[in-house]
Fold these 2 entries.
Entry 1:
Amino acid sequence: MTPGGTPGAPGVVVVTGVGRYLGAHVAARLAADPRIERVIGIDPATPGPEFAGLLDRVERIRLDLDSLGGLLADLDVAAVVHLALVTAPDPQHGGRAAMKEQNVIGTMQLLAACQRAPRLRKLVVRSSTAAYGASFRDPAVFTEETEPREVPRGGFGRDILDIEGYVRGFRRRRPDVTATVLRFAPFIGSTADTTLTRYLSQPVVPTVFGRDPRLQFVHFDDALEVLHRSVAEDHPGTYNVAGPGVLSLSQAIRRAGRVAVPVWEPGLSGAAAIARNLGFGRYGLDQVDLIVHGRVVDTRRLTREYGFTPRTTAAAFDDFVRAHHGGVVVTPDRLAAAEQVVLESIRQVRSAVRDRT
Amino acid sequence: MTAQNGHRRLTTTPAPASRNGSGPDPTVPATTHPTPAGSGSAASGAGSPVVERPGDQWDRRVASGLAFLRRRLSGQYEVDEFGFDPELTGTVFHPLLRLLYRDWFRTEVTGLEHVPADGAGLVVGNHSGTVALDALILSAALHDQHPAHRYLRLLGADLVFRMPVVSELARKTGGTVACNPDAERLLGNGELVGVFPEGFKGIGKLYSDRYKLQRFGRGGFVSAALRTGTPIVPVAIVGGEEIYPMLADIKPLARLLKLPYFPVTPTFPWLGPLGMVPLPSKWLIEFCPPIPTAHLTDSADDPLVVFNLADQVRETIQQTLHQLLERRPDPFGP
């Protein structure tokens, strides 16, 4: 029991990656929880002005994960929430090399520091359903026990496998620490801004010819709730976090009022590889694999252990659609109007024909 | 009543029926058919003394067809976690398959009382026909003729899910990859699952080996049934072997194209696309009494129990096949 902390809820919490959207929101939410004494945000960069208001009550330390040293031990840290992951290479910030440096090496260094922190009781790591890879022989629904059949082609998928491997090692070395790994489905919502939301908000969405993957999303607010509960309560283990239910990609594009343009798959993979080599665009093989294979996970363990069910994939997606009006090509109202026009004109033609005979 | 009228009309006017039957193109005819059929019928129906009643019926059809199109285009339909789209299957795929199994193959189904009306069941059949048409015919006939109109969730080979377009058609009609996690998940959800344990050995066999059941693999389907305590319903399908009689298998070409076999039939590849038209054999489907497995749940990992049960299923299907063949002396009879 750390002084001041209620059982379960830790006293001092360190959140990595507070310079990014997810990290800033999680840190703000933990700081608003009276059970938690101190929230310390770590990020190598100064958080952007858009997060300044959010991070009022969060102590911020500008620090690279490799210079963490004995900081966690000195601060008497009881819980670490590791969110500093890069999901897609950013050409302006070093591309894939920097992404791997941050994801893999950063996690290694954080876990090394965690191992030397004697008061640490809890570790929460953000992972992704990309941990299941992508293969044609995959089962339709992944449970937490499903092993990937082959190493993913995409960089992010490979990083995730490495990160989870380090967490497994950490669990062996520090069995006294409650380690929670959360495999999130892609985030969506009215405010989330990710590679996938940008992809789906284009007026014309490229898809893969002959493939209609099954997708799942998790609403950003539900992801926050699960992260919050992971810190405030004890939930050791690995959990899939996704909205129940499924949308197929074609269905999602239609619900968003966009137009799908099927592209031949080898062409798309080639284009993604060229784009990456030339250093533009954030779409990579991770995204291509997702829109070829799709990804659906079983969330029964989350519901059982957390007593919380995220809103459905369809509901989360509706929230995204409402917030992204721009670029809509087809709306349900226009379709309904067109339906009425066609129906009326058919009726008129038929009655005209009947009158003449 | 309305459905019967529609069927009679389709069978008495040969032109659209035979055209649809010979070229099973899954999307084009079904999405466009309500409109031309509606206006055509209004023109012909206007001459008859009873104008109002058929007119109303066609109006309803046009309206429901348009509403269906609007729902599809705005994405307002449900897909389950395996990708099964009941609306699309019921509105587009099954009507097409109905033409094929009822009018082209004259299929007779018996023993439907052995298929459970609710809860899980594992339907195990013999595989045949060079192209796995028997699985589709079985699922459409079962859905149409079973009193509870149950959907058969088929388990397909990896190759099916590797191919673009085909993989999505398989998922949308309720299929998924044949693997134990998926089979057990479907059975655990109380679904009716269809499996063909012979796999490519069954559909890729030569015409001279017709109705000889091939090896049943490792019996993975039995352990899935045992783990979930699901009854196994063997089904014998006669007629599939004659639709594309495979005279030879060009193995080097198959290896080149990465296919399990490359068939040569009396019409394929000689006649090109025309060789894809299945011969109109007479089909008989018989469901056999279910084999209960609820008392064997603990033996799911016992190879002896699994192999014995797989053998029992295999023997049942083989014997039923012989009985059905005696009932059908002429493969192309009425």
Entry 2:
Amino acid sequence: MGGNSMQFGIFSVGDLTVDPTDGAIPTENEKLKALVTIAKKVEDIGGDVFAVGEHHDSGFVPGAISTLHAFIAAQTERIILSTSIAHITTNDPVKMAEDYATLQHLSDGRADLVLGRGNTGQVYPWFGKDPSKGVELTIENYQLLRRLWDEDVVNWEGRFRTPLQGFTSIPRPLDGVSPFVWHGSIRTPEVAEIAAYYGDGYFANNIFWPKEHYIRLINFYRQRYEHYGHGTPEQAIVGLGGQFFMRRNSQDAVNEFRPYFDNAPVYGHGPSLEDFQAQTPLVVGSPQEVIEKTLAFADYFGDYQRQMFLVDHAGLPLKTVLEQLDLLGEILPTLRAEFDARRPAGVPDAPTHANRVAARDAALAKADA
Amino acid sequence: MTTVVAITAGLSETSSTRLLADRLVESLGRQAADVSVEVVTLRELAHDVVDATLTGFASPRLQDVLDMVTAADGLIVATPIYKASYPGLFKSFFDVMDTDAVIGKPVLLAATAGTARHSLAIDHSLRPLFAYLQALVVPTGVFASTHDWGSEGAPALEQRIERATGELASLLAGTGTGRSRDDEFDLFSETFRSIAEGPKA
């Protein structure tokens, strides 16, 4: 599992979007099963990570990610199962600690988490929370989640839930090392600050907006990571999103993707595909074009640890998504080799359960000596 | 050198709104020393403005204009009045601009309409918008309906133009309110703010 200096994977938001070319829309059952199929395909093509974003709005299916991931874990051997993102604001940290520790055990250490605030204000009251308290909930809930995993017995008191006295969350993390945590945000610098404070990873979704925005966020995180004494800015753990549509022939990719682009949620009915490609990380073209645009990310954001791609959105049928993954599998060896060739010594490898247990053991041995 | 951006939201070519803006620019040039004026025609940026409202970020050419407005010492703003207020494109342009882009800037408001019945639109529609944006609006607004372009109204329009640009020139020559978007600048909050607001739109 993992073990690569850089991890590549697929992230999905699990949206139920009409295919604009034929009007088809998957049922919830079909979409959930499609996510399982896509996850297994990620493993087949030599990918490292599959992540799903928590949503509770109608039009999406991933409301219960640890359940979905446990089902996928039972049918895969190698890939890391992650989130993109899981809501640290509206979920009870005690339940999260137990759900994801359970997933970590059952998957033999293949669970990690990208945490974030969530993207819609209406979700908060559905879970009994005040939408105006997003940042405060993020800070308090994560501090509690961290303690529940790092400390066997927790006495805790905060503003947003009842106090805990002598509480032990179960199961304890596998091998005494919690799932690795990334923090994801699109516009909340406090989230980058939290990632830096704890020495956790930072994930920038890197889709829909120009790279300059994400450069500001990532540089801010890297500077604050150093400020809090976790290492140099280059040693901070960065993950990125990305978005591609590939065909062997560039023009075929453009022609096939255009109706999906023109009608897509988020950017549809706005700028042209050409302008959007020029102004955001989206790349629609040949495998070589996808390789070139992806490799350039390291020039903008610094050498980084995880590259995720969004491919199953905007109503693209499962068959097309799986074809996209076959093409991704073909370019993965090149991407790995090129990223490794440019990576300076001292840039840490992508986090896995195995290398985090080894790092913990090495630190303990050093402390004993 | 003092820089002024004149924003004209006339939607037709040729437009009386553009004509009014040109008159204001010419008058300001006579009354203010060492002023350079750039004229921005929103019609040419119409698609970019709508795209930015959908995507949340500005195209490079719209961003250039937004940067120019943010950097300017003062603004002349001229819009037609449709259905008792400014058209959607005019509002959308200010919707995609940074909230603090024109804080403390002297702004001259001008409007055109097909009928004199829209004559209070500057005071009822435009002033509240620029009050929200914390701009320093000059006391005289310049409204021109079809009537004002005719021989009967023309002298009065000419007087209003001269008075308004005189007020703007006076503010530009002084220190205005002494406020700007750089108020309370410090490195940390500046970094925070630029990130929190997303791409400059």
